[in-house]
User: What shape does this take?
Amino acid sequence: MLVPSRRRLRLEVWIVLGLSLGQSAVYSVVQLLDKLTRAPLAEGTSTLNRSQSSREYFDLSYQLLDIVFALVPVVLVLYFLTEHRVSGAAGSGATAFGKLGFTFARPGRDLLQGLGLAALIGVPSLGLYAAGRALGITTAIIPSALDSYWWTVPVLILSAVRHGIVEEVIVVGYLLDRFGKFGWSLPLAIFASSMLRGSYHLYQGFGPFIGNAIMGVVFALVYTRTRRVMPLVIAHAVLDTVAFVGFSLFGKAIGLG
Assistant: This one.
């Protein structure tokens, strides 16, 4: 089996983050500074799912393209995590899906754990958002600004699943594996992973940064015990689906949009 050096692994991590959530973190910091220098943060807004065209089927095309291309770094990560054996060696190497627990091997248990995590994170998140708004450290968050079409809800669900896969596979499964190979202690690896998760939410304000960093610690601890990323993907997808679809269907009706 080919064993990459630490230097090669560090370069690999920088490439992955530069193509995905590291890039998002940099943009998020710049967006936060932009909002802070324009007006008080409480007066700002953060829109998560925007319409990209006034023409229905072009908007649908853009939404689907965004979802597909956002998953490309995940494919890259899965390739990097797959054990590649030298030519002629026995076996084909372990797959990244099995290594991360990103499989359907135990659907019932993963689903229950995912729903439990979603409840554990979701309820306190609402309180933290309300507190952040009251303290003026969180922008108004608009989970969806898509126009109402027949495809709006399915696309929002796909968007939620996309976020769950991208964030949990890369920030938890991949980075904890690579940080461990760097020789980092587990607490340091979890801290770095959680800070990254918080940082790419900074455009929403300091409240979401704190909340997502805490979520990152909880998810990383669960992963270190189960070695399965699937429950985390399910939990994240459920949280985002409730937020995106709930706001799209009921936000304007109750005065949230």
